[in-house]
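Running co-folding for LFW5757T.
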Amino acid sequence: MQRAEAARTALHTSHPGADISLLKVDVGSLQSVLEASKEIKQRFKKVDYLYLNAGIMPNPQISLKAFVTGLFSRKVISMFATGEGLLTQQDRVTADGLQEVFVTNVFGHFIMIRELEPLLCQPGNTSQLIWTSSSNARSSAFRLDDYQHTQGVEPYSSSKYASDLLSVALNRHYNKQGLYSSVICPGLVMTNLTYGILPSFFWMLIMPVMWLIRIFTNTFTLTAYNGAEALFWLFNQKPESLDPRAKYHSYSSGLGNSYTKPQKRPNQNDVSVCAYAYARAVSIYSPGIVQKKHCGPYNTVIT
Ligand SMILES: NC(=O)C1=CN([C@@H]2O[C@H](COP(=O)(O)OP(=O)(O)OC[C@H]3O[C@@H](n4cnc5c(N)ncnc54)[C@H](OP(=O)(O)O)[C@@H]3O)[C@@H](O)[C@H]2O)C=CC1
Ligand SMILES: CC(C)CCC[C@@H](C)[C@H]1CC[C@H]2C3=C(CC[C@]12C)[C@@]1(C)CCC(=O)[C@@H](C)[C@@H]1CC3
């Protein structure tokens, strides 16, 4: 909350008239998501934009062997752009009995969308869901028969691919009610997430190398300001004009100027499968968990 208050103060300095309301939510805890959603419904009559940005990559490990092999392969540029095959993470099970990466990066957000449905689907109004996904999302890390990625070591890639699929499934389900979902990738940005991969002083030391790499890959946005480009770009678009299956990337030119461009779509079969998986996930988890946590009745009907 302290960080949120600091952000509010900074925003008030640059935008003195802004009405900024703070609310604490742990998207990794279903009870917290339900409570926060209830509070949002009390505070607001409608929600125009829901930015699903919170995400984690716990205990990341770099594979030095994969990095060195990648450096001398033809895939070197794509390795720097996506980090594919370079990172593994150690996941854990939350108090709700869910995989932490899956619940934080995907499922908590999904429950919030369902809970806020009346505010997001107002007649005569369009609303946008904007997910912060990643170019690290990888279909081969996602399996329907293990959609929480309990068996593998790449829960981050898996959860980001799940959010890409879920966004397409949400478009199919909600577009006719004026709700539109998009995913973005901010590129490689220096944040607490990347400081968990390598210490901040190390990133500082290799910054000249990073600027050099940026000449060859536009995905090294590096600053939060440039990384947020696609989030801001989407805010200004007519949601009906967006491609429901695209991923919108924040890019930076060699000189550090940012711009947004759409990129590839998830596989059609995967999308149908994902819609089914999430319908099943909600029906399995919601009633049991809510009863256990004494949050009152919570019925979800998925068609
Ligand atoms: N940095 C990068 O290079 C990239 C980042 N991304 C994605 O961008 C998003 C933002 O990450 P980034 O800013 O880089 O990393 P940070 O670790 O700096 O920020 C993560 C944010 O998520 C919030 N968060 C984490 N867990 C929870 C939780 N359980 N409940 C509520 N909020 C939570 C954090 O809140 P708090 O500060 O209160 O803990 C923080 O605001 C993530 O989804 C990440 O996957 C995607 C591609 C590249
Ligand atoms: C640049 C240096 C000389 C060496 C850095 C090597 C790696 C640690 C990085 C190379 C590509 C990076 C990358 C990510 C993390 C750090 C690297 C693997 C991400 C996976 C971070 C989270 C994301 O969501 C992706 C978009 C990033 C892709 C690139």
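Result summary
The CA atoms of residues 88 and 154 lie 5 Å apart.
The first helix runs from residue 2 to 14.
Job closed.
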